[in-house]
Design a protein that fits this description.
Elements (H helix, E strand, L loop, with lengths): L4 E11 L17 H8 L5 E11 L7 H18 L1 H5 L11 E3 L9 H16 L5 E6 L2 H27 L14 H15 L16 H10 L5 H21 L8 E7 L5 H5 L6 E6 L1
Parallel strand pairs: 4-5
Antiparallel strand pairs: 1-2, 3-6, 4-6
Helix pairs in contact: 1-2, 6-7
């Protein structure tokens, strides 16, 4: 104390805190206590808090208990609102651990994302009471062109598969089909001929002679990408993330949940994120 002003530092240690049944009370606080406890309790069942207290002892409204309760409430609100920022010190990170960024049209786990996932796994290991929601997203403005290229490539592979089956060969997955340069050229020319796409005209009004690259570009531009394509990409990002977590950490499967993807180009969030790539978004609960 100095000049009747208290500056206190309090270290509170709670061992094996367990909640009982809910009790109705006018003094009850409206806080997500269960989530807060899961965020604060370490793998040994202990909670350690640093609660600073300050105030003027001459103030008739100053009460130690009330101040501590206010500080505790503010701490709970802060950690629940931004859990990754609050727990980042456990793994060497912060709020950036709450999401993964993906290149356009890509769902594979990059080395940068792998590093983040390992840190998220460490947080989950140190906080065994937590579970993780994994939401994949796709952004049409960023992923559209890449997805059109993928859809077109699958069309070409599907055509080769049909020809293989006509010749008596067994069906195989599209991802196992390889197109050499000659096959690809013939399939692109055939696809363009069947597409009905208008050939551009030169200054004299005559059709321009298109190269193979021109045909492919026009085919790609006119390839339709459906909501199901975006949903599939968003879900692939989420599933690949979950699988990486399971294969490279000690986190139990029942603590990981894939939730509904977000990909709608019309929603406010997607419009706001026009320049942002697709992501996987993590939520602790």
């Amino acid at each position: 104390m100095e000049d009747r002003r208290l500056e206190g530092k309090n270290n509170i240690y709670i061992d094996q805190l367990t909640l009982g049944s809910a009790v109705k009370s006018p003094q009850a606080v409206n806080l997500p206590i269960k989530l807060a406890i899961a965020l604060l309790k370490d793998r040994n069942g202990n909670i350690q808090l640093d609660l600073p207290v300050s105030g003027n002892l001459d103030d008739p409204k100053f009460r130690i208990g009330k101040v501590i309760l206010t500080v505790l409430k503010n701490l709970i609100v802060k950690i629940v609102t931004s859990p990754f920022a609050a727990l980042g010190a456990l793994a060497g990170g912060g709020e950036e651990l709450s999401y993964l960024d993906f290149a356009p049209g890509v769902s594979d786990i990059s080395p940068q994302n792998a590093e983040k996932i390992v840190k998220v796994a460490k947080i989950l290991y140190e906080r065994p009471g937590l579970k993780l929601d994994i939401r994949g997203t796709a952004v049409p403005q960023a992923d559209g062109d890449a997805l059109r290229a993928v859809v077109l490539e699958n069309r070409l592979k599907a055509e080769k598969l049909r020809e293989m089956m006509k010749s008596g060969k067994s069906a195989i997955p599209l991802e196992d089909i390889q197109l050499d340069a000659d096959e690809r050229a013939k399939l692109i020319e055939a696809a363009f001929a069947d597409s009905g796409i208008a050939v551009p005209l030169d200054n004299n009004g005559k059709p321009v002679e298109l190269s193979l690259a021109d045909m492919e570009k026009l085919l790609r531009i006119n390839t339709e990408v459906t909501p199901d394509d975006y949903r599939a990409l968003a879900n692939a990002r989420a599933f690949n993330t979950k699988n990486y977590l399971l294969e490279n950490s000690q986190v139990a499967r029942e603590r990981l949940f894939i939730v509904e993807p977000r990909f709608d180009a019309g929603d406010a969030k997607a419009k706001k994120d026009r320049a942002r790539n697709g992501q996987v978004i993590f939520s602790l609960k």
